[in-house]
Amino acid sequence: MRIEARHLNKQFKTPVVREGRFAGLRSLFARDYRIKEAVKDISFNIESGEFVGYIGPNGAGKSTTIKMLTGILHPTGGEVLLGGINPHRERKRAVRRLGVVFGQRSQLWWDLPVKDSYDILAKMYGVDEALKQSRLAQFAALLDLEEFWLTPVRKLSLGQRMRADLAAALLHDPDLLFLDEPTIGLDVNAKREIRQFLKMLNADFGKTVLLTTHDMDDIEQLCSRVMVIGNGELSFDGTVQSLRDTIGLPTRFRVTYRGEVNIPAIPALEHARLAVTLQEGSVITVEANRKTINTMEVLRELGSWGEIEDVEMMEPDFEEVIHRVY
Ligand SMILES: Nc1ncnc2c1ncn2[C@@H]1O[C@H](COP(=O)(O)OP(=O)(O)OP(=O)(O)O)[C@@H](O)[C@H]1O
User: Which residues form the ABC transporter domain (predicted)?
Assistant: First the structure.
């Protein structure tokens, strides 16, 4: 099912608290508001079967976008279409086609045993008993749900809770999945399990997925496409590889010199973004943008600074670099 976002905007209006004498009294009569433009004119299409990552720094507008896409929050401007259905005008029809997981907040009933939440959700979505049983049997096998079937949700570990929440979001067999930080706070093993499951949902069951995350491994391992939002605006939309190319990931060279080192004030390759990031005696770390200079050029330049004893090359870490881009 296709997701279309057309010129989405969201402004939040929050009252400003006044200070000083009689401030409270004055606020009763005339209120000042501050307008926060959380999402500014965002448009994109996500085709059926795509797995798209949605990334950006804290407060960039990711959750606000997801809430508008799923119909929870009304846009100030623009329109959302999910398989042609506007979730704000036809909420019930849209809700049947989409599943949502918010990693920070469970949609399960906190004090009830896990299985009871599925009974309630099945009733809410009109999933009949036989379908509910067969789907739950499938999820129980894939997500190992049975070990905590009768445990109240509040007693689940974070990893168990996330698995339980995923099953809940899928109980009515939606075509679209919106996942807001589904791996947050999980350990390495739990992350791996969740990723395997999500990969399977997309590859084998054809679910269309939009995923927000701060974990670049999620993006690299799962997404065919990534959108970057910063300060409410889309700043990138393309493949993970083209994002890497755009950023021009720097490679780090750690060079140990024998004897004296003379770093020129302006290195010859400065125009191509060769920068000294650390100097510890005769050990110097430089960063070079491999898009603009090749390794031999870098080594030639470094060799002109002194007699090289050893060079260690370190490949860039996507996660670290993307945070610089934010
Ligand atoms: N209900 C609200 N009222 C006022 N401001 C809000 C409201 N919800 C969000 N905002 C503001 O809108 C901006 C975008 O918030 P949003 O939660 O969408 O960011 P995010 O990209 O999901 O961040 P994070 O990665 O921290 O979860 C922030 O500045 C936030 O403070």
Answer: 23-256
